[in-house]
Amino acid sequence: MGNSKDQLLARLLELRIDFSKYEHPAVLTVEAQEKYVGHLGGGLSKNLFLKDKKHRFYIVSALKETKVDLKVLSQRLGLGKGGLRMAPEEALEEILQASVSLGCVTPFALVNESARHVSLLLDQGFKTKEFCFFHPLSNDTSIAIKACDVDKFLKSIGKEPSYVDLEANPTVGKDQPPDLANLVPSDALVLPDPPEKSVSSVSTEKPASVDKKSSAAAAQTAKPSNNAQKAKEKPANSIHLPSSFTDPGHFVEEILDKTSAIVLSVMTEDAIKQHGEHLGAVLSDTIRKRLSLDLKNLAVTYKNTAYTEGFHAGTYHQRKHI
Question: Is the confidence at residue 203, as pLDDT, over 60?
C-alpha cells in the first residue's frame, strides 16, 4: 500500500513546506477541479502518466493551458514518433500504488518507493506562477503550493526536479540529438530484448508433387547467399546493453549514488535536532525502506544482463566452430 493523503501532508509539514488545502468533491479532470479552486488564482495542473515501448514510465505535469504533443515529446526523448502512450490503469495501481486513483496523478506520487524509477517532466511554466494546484494523492483535495516547495519535496526523496518547455518543437536529426534524452529513466528495470531467431528466406519443406529436377533447383535456391552468411556470422555482442549493467564499476557507483542521495536527504539540521543520538537508527531504517526495492531491481537486472551476455557469447563461440 502506498502513502495516503494524510501521510503526504504530514511529510510536507515535516519539511516545513507551506501549502493551502482545499477539500472538494472528487474530480477526474482539471476542468472539474477548476470549478472549485479556479477562482483562487494560481496555476491549475494537468498530469499525464505515460509509458514507452520498453515499459519505462513517465509523469508529465503541466499547466492547464500548456499544449503537450506526445509525438513531439516522444521524439525529444529519443523514442521515435510513437514511443509514448498512456500507461494502463493496472500500471497506475502497481507503480503509483493503490492509494492513487485516476484523476489524481501528480508529482507527489513519486513519494512511493515503487515509483522512484518514474521520470518526471515538469512544465517550466510552473515557475511563472505564484503558486499551483496539485492533488495530494487524492482527487477530493487540492493543495496550493509554490514551485520551489515542490522542488524541496522532490529533493527530499532523492529526485532532482527537471523543468521543460513542453511546447517546444526542436528539430531532431543526425546532427541534432534529442534534447530530452537524458530524462529517459536509466535506472528502471528494463530487461534486454531476447535474441531474434534467424528465419530462413526459403522454406525447407518439399512439396509432395515435386520431381527430382525441381528438387535439385530448390536445393540450389536454398543455399544461403553471401549476405545471409555474413549476417549469421555477425557477432552477438553487437547487441546493445545498458553500460551500467555490463560494467561492475558502474553498477557499484549507481548503488553508492542512490545511498548518498538518501543520506543527504535525511541528514538535515532539523533531523539532527529532532532525533539526536537516535539519528543513526533513523538513517539506517530510512535507507533500508527506500533502497530495498531499488537494490533488488538492480540486482535482478544485473543478473539478467550477465546471463544474456553469456548466452550471446556462447552462441557466437559455437558458431565459429561449426
Answer: no
